[in-house]
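[step 3/7] inverse_fold.run input=structure_tokens len=273
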């Protein structure tokens, strides 16, 4: 099914000049489109209410109201933080940011041991996260690196293009640990699809069974991410990734040796009491 945003963009080249102005404005301001009336968009684009409705029909909708409803459903996760702020749902003092019981359940999930077993046996472990999730991916790689033979956080310097280059040679025997929280990155999904097609085993760390990564995962780790104000909280994913690293240490027979060697290597750089 074609997305509402794609319908808007595809209608612009074939529209009349006034209708294309409407389409370009909507394409550049999809969230603002949801909060504006046809009259307001007409003023902003220097057109007319009739032009707004005609463009909506040219894009395949029944009218402007249908366009807004379709676009709103598509952008629900993107506009949710705005609704939270507008509704004044910021947490009160003393209210926890995230449910501790939900985190405890997440880190006790049996899938974590399943994922850790695949990591220990993997030829290579490639950790992927974009946007906010890139920091989580970097931390996961940092935690796993001393205890696995070949671990990389693949979206660091160079961004998405570099991540795609590093994934281009992945295949059977490799494990991709992909982290994606609301708001979900399209590029993460695309790269995971590519890695799965090449035979890599996918461990997905995300916040819902409805998340875009969920159906692509060979092993799905759910991390609670609800937050009263921000789009998502990283605390649950951080806890799940730490739990994953802890189980890797537990089941890796070479973990004690690796830990000793790492400690000796970094000891001269540490302040000791």
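[step 3/7] decode complete -> sequence:
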């Amino acid at each position: 099914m074609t997305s509402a945003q794609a319908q808007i963009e595809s209608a612009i080249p074939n529209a009349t000049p006034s209708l294309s102005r409407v389409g370009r404005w909507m394409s550049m301001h999809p969230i603002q489109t949801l909060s504006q009336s046809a009259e307001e968009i007409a003023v902003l684009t220097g057109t007319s209410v009739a032009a707004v409705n005609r463009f909506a029909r040219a894009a395949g909708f029944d009218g402007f109201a249908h366009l807004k409803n379709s676009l709103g459903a598509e952008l629900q996760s993107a506009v949710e933080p705005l609704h939270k702020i507008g509704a004044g749902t910021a947490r009160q003092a003393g209210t926890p940011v995230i449910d501790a019981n939900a985190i405890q359940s997440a880190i006790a999930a049996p899938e974590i041991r399943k994922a850790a077993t695949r990591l220990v046996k993997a030829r290579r472990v490639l950790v992927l996260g974009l946007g906010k999730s890139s920091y989580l991916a970097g931390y996961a790689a940092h935690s796993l690196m001393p205890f696995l033979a070949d671990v990389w956080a693949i979206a660091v310097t160079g961004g998405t293009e570099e991540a795609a280059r590093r994934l281009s040679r992945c295949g059977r025997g490799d494990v991709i640990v992909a982290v994606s929280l609301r708001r979900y990155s399209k590029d993460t999904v695309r790269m995971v699809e590519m890695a799965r097609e090449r035979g890599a085993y996918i461990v997905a760390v995300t916040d819902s069974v409805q998340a875009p990564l969920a159906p692509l995962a060979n092993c799905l780790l759910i991390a609670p991410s609800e937050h009263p104000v921000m789009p998502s909280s990283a605390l649950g994913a951080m806890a799940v990734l730490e739990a994953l690293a802890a189980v890797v240490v537990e089941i890796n027979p070479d973990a004690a040796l690796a830990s000793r060697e790492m400690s000796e290597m970094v000891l001269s750089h540490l302040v000791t009491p």
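[step 4/7] annotate
The beta strands are 124-129, 151-153, 174-180, 201-206, 219-222.
The longest helix spans residues 235-251.
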